[in-house]
Amino acid sequence: YLGGVSIFQFIVLAIMDTVEVFPLFWSWTVTNAVHCLVSIIYLHWIKGSLFDDQGEMAAMTLWEQLEGRPKTVGVKRALTIVPTLLCYAACHFSNYHYDVCVANIILWSILVAAKLPIMNGVRIFGINRTTGIDDYSEKED
Q1: Are 135 and 126 in contact (CB under 8 A)?
Q2: Measuring CA to CA, which residue among 105, 123, 111, 34 is closest to residue 80?
Q3: pTM for the predicted model, two decimal places
Q4: What is the pLDDT of residues 33-85, one digit of tens each?
Q5: CB count, 10 Å around CB of 80?
Q6: Element (H, E) at 80
Q7: How far is CA 5 from CA 37, 90, 100, 137, in A?
Q8: What is the DSSP-derived secondary structure letter of residue 97?
Q9: Under DSSP, is residue 53 helix (H, G, I), strand (E, B) or coil?
């Protein structure tokens, strides 16, 4: 996981050094943004399990499947610490440039908010809901 993020960072650095459109310190922000996008899609958007197509896992995201399982505490910590370190690195290497810090803190806030226990099973504005499973208000009527 960390190796993949590092390799991506080196690729972004090489491209940004060649193109010379943006200052190099934006490379960490690009890495953070791509990491945020991939994490949101993989951990918090895609539902289901590779092993249980029709069971209770079918309506849960990967992050929701990790909730309540004792052996996944280390995994959840790593998946929370890495975005925090990417945000810090982006801010630090830009010498705390205002635009960079604002962009990275917004990305970090979105990613960490999605990982809060209170957000498990929450579908904001009905986005990414599973018809027939996430229809709590219709079941109560």
Answers
A1: no
A2: 111
A3: 0.80
A4: 999 999 998 888 888 776 666 667 777 888 888 887 788 888 888 999 999 99
A5: 13
A6: helix 73-93
A7: 13, 13, 19, 40
A8: -
A9: coil
